[in-house]
Amino acid sequence: MILNSIIEGELKDIQASEKMIDLLELRLALIKTNYATKNDYEKNEVEISEMKTAAQIEKLKQIATERKFVFEETYGRFIEELAFEDKKIA
After folding, report:
1. Domains held by the chain: number
2. Is the entire prediction scored with pTM above 0.85?
3. CA distance 6 to 35
């Protein structure tokens, strides 16, 4: 039987992934601040950080999509089990 805590845990994982995506997207926006005033080394570091951050975002989006799919399956089974238990009681 699927427990409510499993559903809640999966939902928290999805929310954490989405929060991290938001934070990384904010990093991308902020990282270019005052780009014109930076020296070549700092510009290089900004570009490296941009590439790494973009890769992290893409990976997290894939993970979030997978977690949502798993959540939907788990939640569907949870609802089915509740309906089955209700029928047994009635």
Report:
1. 1
2. no
3. 45
